[in-house]
Amino acid sequence: MPLDHVPPSDQVCEEMRERSDTCMLAFSAGKDAIAAWIQLRRFFPKIIPFFMYLIPDLGFVNDDLAYYEDFFGTRIIRVPHPSLYRMLNNLVFQPPERVSIIQAAGLANFDYQHVVKLLREDLQLSTAMYSATGVRAADSPQRYMAVKRYGAINHRQKSFFPIWDWNKERMRRELLEAKVKLGIQYRWFGRSFDGIDWRFLSVLKTASPKDYATIKEWFPLVDVEILRREYAKEKV
Question: Is residue 111 part of a domain?
């Protein structure tokens, strides 16, 4: 079903530019986020990118972010991802001796909107400024339905989708013309790093033992994820 009721992405960006000459960008270091940054540069004199880290201080993540900071000439703000706190509060891959410590810490549960709100307050940004994300309707049925239902601008959440109508070919062409590289995460995982499941752990254990060790500092029992997959293969 076409999305004729949603303005083209360029028009969306123009409308947002009329509200403010600055916008925030939720930057994941993934191809959609990179493409969104390329698009935003055409409309906004100032872009404030922020990266939500799932695990603090992973070397390969830091290397990718450093490359994009150099490429775009802009510092990327680092903030914790809501999933980091959620996993800790849910005791994911935690040994028994850590349970009471984590519970006593009283870590807050928060979501993406909390992150944006606190950043806006901390940086003293105008309430007229919206936050962009690299959502594309063609990327998945879920994203298509989100655009169909809410459009490309969410005034309640003060967010917008600057490349919502780009297809894979448009995105590929834009990345090639900009001469920007995809990070090592795509070479290792075929996508940006966003979890501590087998897809990522099995690669990091051999490709980046230091980063795997960092993950184990936060989630000591992650080896169970790999062992579980290996045991399942043996049973098959």
Answer: yes
The total number of structural domains in the chain stands at 1
pLDDT in tens, 114-156: 999 999 999 999 888 999 999 999 988 988 888 888 899 999 9
Tens-place pLDDT, residues 195-206: 999 999 999 999
222 domain residue, yes or no: no
DSSP for the chain, please give it.
---TTSPPHHHHHHHHHHH-SEEEEE--SSHHHHHHHHHHTTT-SEEEEEEEESSTT-HHHHHHHHHHHHHHT-PPEEEE-HHHHHHHHTTTT--HHHHHHHHHHTPPP--HHHHHHHHHHHTT--TT--EE----GGG-HHHHHHHHHH-SEETTTTEE-TTTT--HHHHHHHHHHHTPPP-HHHHHHSS-----SHHHHHHHHHH-HHHHHHHHHHSTTTHHHHHHHHHHHHH-
Q: Report if residue 1 sits inside a domain.
A: no
Q: Structure pTM?
A: 0.93
Question: CATH number of the domain that 163 lies in?
Answer: 3.40.50.620
Q: What is the extent of the structural domain holding 65?
A: 9-189
